[in-house]
Amino acid sequence: MQKVRYIAVEGPIGVGKSSLAEILAKELNGRALLEEIDTNPFLPRFYEDIKKYSFQTQLFFLLSRYQQQKELGQCDLFKTNIVSDYLFAKDRIFAYLNLDENELSLYEQVFRLLDARIPKPDLVVYLRASSEVLLERIGKRNKDYEKGISHEYLEALVEAYNRYFFYYTDTALLVVNTTDIDFVNNPADLSNLVKEIKSIKGGTQHYMPLGSGS
Q: Which of 44, 109, 122, 202 could lock 145 by a disulfide, CB 3.0 to 4.6 Å apart?
């Protein structure tokens, strides 16, 4: 684990990215870099009318994530462990899911300019869960704007994430099935997951815990 200084935690809405990023940052005596989702003024309207507000929402997220990542690039990654709750490149998952052809063409031009300027993580931890479990977890968070998320949209998002990370080769990757575990409230689940993350050597690995059944 000595060479892994920058970890990005990824996965669809409600899977526990931010929770794990904060926990891992403490475990590694590092810093958590959390996406500022609630600052996006278009997000509540996006879930009310996805087609109408997709481009504004996506562009705001892209530029916001870039600003955070640019500041990260100014840190000394050789001295500080960083755990982020998102991977910059995943922005394209939402873009390809929600934008029309003309919007996507413009988006791609902006994305390529920005992506070339930011640091890449040493390891990505991709958290998976079924759409049913995600919907349940989202409900427990009780955020007003998330109440408009449909099961159909969530299923499409889960499929898009799985497809993206099936072909992902940019960095070391750990794929974790979180459907049957609760690493936030169950110490054993957390301990086993952290141990798995620390054991990563490179390439793509899969972790399918039996879990606590929570």
A: 44
Length of the chain: 214
pTM: 0.90
Total domain count, the chain:
1
The CB density around residue 196, as the number of other CB atoms within 10 Å, is 16
Q: Which domain holds residue 38?
A: 6-207
- 197 Cβ contact partners less than 8 Å away, ≥ 6 residues apart: 7, 24, 123, 125, 174
The structure tokens listed for 85 are 């709750």
Q: Cα separation of 29 and 134, whole Å?
A: 29
Structure tokens at 211: 């879990």
The CATH number that applies at residue 77 is: 3.40.50.300
Residues 90-130: pLDDT tens digits? 999 999 999 999 999 999 999 999 998 888 899 999 999 99
**188 falls within a domain:** yes
